[in-house]
Automatic annotation (TrEMBL):
Keyword annotations of the record: Membrane, Transmembrane, Transmembrane helix
One Pfam entry name: Acatn
Protein name: Related to putative acetyl-coenzyme A transporter
GO CC list: membrane
Compartment annotation: Membrane
Taxonomic lineage: Eukaryota, Fungi, Dikarya, Basidiomycota, Ustilaginomycotina
Taxonomic source organism: Pseudozyma antarctica
InterPro entries: AcetylCoA_trans_1-like, AmpG_permease/AT-1, MFS_trans_sf
Main location: membrane
Chain segments carrying region Disordered: 1-40
Length: 588
């Protein structure tokens, strides 16, 4: 992507005059001199024409010389292998807070909160889907080097300028939380607003790091192996996510720890949340230190075009005005409605009905190595000019698994879970993960193919943002809908004699007022109802109503809109996804 021009400055300690972030002026020059915007536009066009010409030459040379995309990791050049490893590690770190927010915390909070409260907590994940709004700042503001006392000059660059401080802050936050998080969760009624705010900040930093890493991937890997960026993202992000979700959730379970790792049962898990966060606090600091001192980022070329914040926002706006980009954004916005209830509620519903968290975590833990294998296979399947085809095929399977999940929840035995039912849960988890991974890698490969390298970070972030937003915005409403459609009540004791005791009568009067359709579905509400001498009865389970509605809407959208639109989009040449930097914005 285009680099910034101008004198390179170091950040000297205490030297305010030398502190200059790499942003470019946009005001017109005096005395009739062409405006900087015109010069910048000319530079951008020249760069694009040169890059297109170089790409054509490289394509011809590749065809003549036999240079093709590597068929596997071992076939990559040593440079690309090192780049792949670096990207996997960075995406893994990004997946750690994401896995906690998207996966683990809802399960930990479900014991004391309703589905509606968990829906409120899920608002903390929105920065991951709204990072588009500050991605141009990340893409255009940076320093090439940093001067520190005693240490000396440190090399940074367009991406490390953001990755290094962000990972440092996240590491410090993890260390602080490791000393206080247990107090937040052990409260009788957790402060869901405070917990949401804390994880909102963590996800905000993770989203910003994602912008920088996405852009860096386009320059770290060679042109012919750019599709492996989506593989690195899949492996790294999934690894961090599942370590923070399934692996942690399993080892955080007292039952799992006693059942599989202890000869004599104890009343505490093998791994607490505080210990887990302390481990990753150290991990973030170690990786960031290595990145700062040993990983060099190529400096921005002096002859590259200017890319200030205003210009990046302007180009991003022009991209969004392209008709096919608008169609693609709309696809992303509605694509995940069909299986949203399955992803957001099924696991929680299984636990609510008595399926052990440790057994559910074990099921997903078994699925973890399959995720890595599926990511590699999906990357091979998504090569070529029809990257959206596997994405569409996997769409049907994910809708089918949403229906299957409802049957699995409905057919859950009341007796202790047997091996047969456990196997069904594992099989459905693995199969669902395969379809999900195929979609993720397929759409990521398509993003890489159509992204303009000139503004790589912003273009990729635009595409990834709308993709993430499609899975984030419905979740709050889905969880609220489960509570809305659920009809349950706390019924009084069968015998009136149980109400004669004054204390029990007082408890019942209090409980019967506050325990209704929502609260009687939470563990805390059930406990209050039980303490009052009553029993919770679910007359209508909102999970089935909500999931069925999602599947019906998703199927209709797939057949009538998504499939026809995808056929048209993947037939477009890469040039159709570029904007004309010389003309005024037009709908194209």
């Amino acid at each position: 992507m285009g680099a910034a021009k101008g004198t390179k400055k170091s950040l000297a300690n205490g030297a305010g005059d030398d502190v200059k972030l790499r942003q470019r002026p946009t005001a017109a020059m005096a005395n009739g001199t062409p405006s900087s915007e015109a010069v910048e536009t000319s530079d951008l066009l020249a760069t694009r024409h040169a890059s297109i010409a170089e790409a054509d030459i490289e394509t011809k040379d590749a065809k003549q010389g036999g240079e093709e995309e590597a068929s596997g990791f071992m076939d990559l050049s040593p440079r690309d292998q090192r780049a792949m490893i670096l990207l996997v590690v960075l995406y893994l770190l990004q997946g750690v807070p994401v896995g906690l927010a998207f996966g683990t915390m809802p399960f930990l909070l479900k014991t004391k909160l309703s589905y509606g409260d968990i829906g409120f907590f899920m608002l903390c994940t929105y920065p991951y889907s709204l990072k588009l709004f500050w991605s141009p700042i990340v893409d255009s503001t940076f320093v090439n080097e940093l001067q520190l006392p005693l240490i000396g000059k440190l090399s940074l660059g367009r991406r490390k300028s953001w990755i290094v401080p962000i990972q440092t802050i996240v590491g410090v936050m993890f260390w602080y939380l490791s000393r206080n998080v247990d107090q937040l969760l052990l409260a009788d009624l957790p402060n869901v607003k405070l917990i949401t705010l804390i994880f909102f900040v963590l996800i905000l930093f993770a989203a910003t790091q994602d912008i920088a890493v996405d852009g860096w991937a386009l320059t770290l890997l060679s042109q012919e192996n750019l599709s492996y960026a989506s593989t690195a993202q899949t492996v790294g992000l999934n690894s961090g996510y599942f370590l923070s979700f399934t692996v942690f959730l399993a080892f955080n379970s007292v039952e799992f720890s006693n059942k599989y790792f202890r000869s004599a049962p104890l009343d505490y898990p093998l791994l607490s949340l505080s210990a887990y966060m302390r481990f990753w606090a150290v991990g973030f600091i170690v990786v960031t230190s290595w990145l700062l001192f040993f990983q060099k980022e190529d400096e921005e070329a002096d002859n590259a075009p200017d890319m200030d914040v205003k210009k990046v926002y302007s180009i991003m706006w022009r991209i969004c005005q392209l008709k096919h980009v608008q169609t693609f954004i709309l696809i992303h916005f509605v694509a995940k409605i069909g299986f949203q209830a399955n992803e957001a509620v099924t696991g929680l519903k299984l636990v609510e009905k008595g399926f052990g968290k440790e057994d559910l975590a074990l099921a997903v833990l078994i699925d973890f190595p399959f995720q890595l294998i599926f990511g590699y296979l999906a990357a091979r399947w998504s090569k070529g000019d029809k990257a959206l085809q596997p994405w569409v095929v996997a769409f049907f399977f994910r809708l089918g698994f949403a229906v299957l999940s409802m049957a699995i929840v409905h057919g859950m035995p009341s007796a202790p879970i047997g091996a047969g039912y456990f196997f069904v849960v594992i099989a459905s988890t693995v199969a669902g993960s395969f379809a999900s991974t195929v979609q993720f890698v397929g759409i990521s490969a398509f993003h890489t193919q159509i992204a303009d390298p000139l503004i790589g970070g912003t273009y990729m972030t635009l595409l990834n943002t709308v993709s993430n937003l499609g899975g984030t915005w419905p979740r709050y409403f889905v969880l609220k809908a489960v509570d809305l459609f659920t009809v349950s009540s706390c019924q009084p004791p069968s015998s009136a004699l149980l109400l004669k005791d004054a204390e029990i009568a007082k408890l019942w009067a209090t409980a019967s007022k506050g325990i209704g359709g929502n609260e009687c579905t939470s563990d805390l509400g059930k406990a209050a109802c039980s303490a009052a001498g009553g029993e919770c009865y679910i007359e209508r389970d909102g999970y089935y109503w909500t999931s069925t509605l999602c599947v019906v809407v998703g199927t209709a959208l797939l057949v009538t809109f998504i499939i026809p639109a995808c056929r048209k989009l993947q037939a477009l040449p890469p040039s159709a996804w570029r904007v004309n930097l010389q003309s005024h914005p037009k709908s194209q």
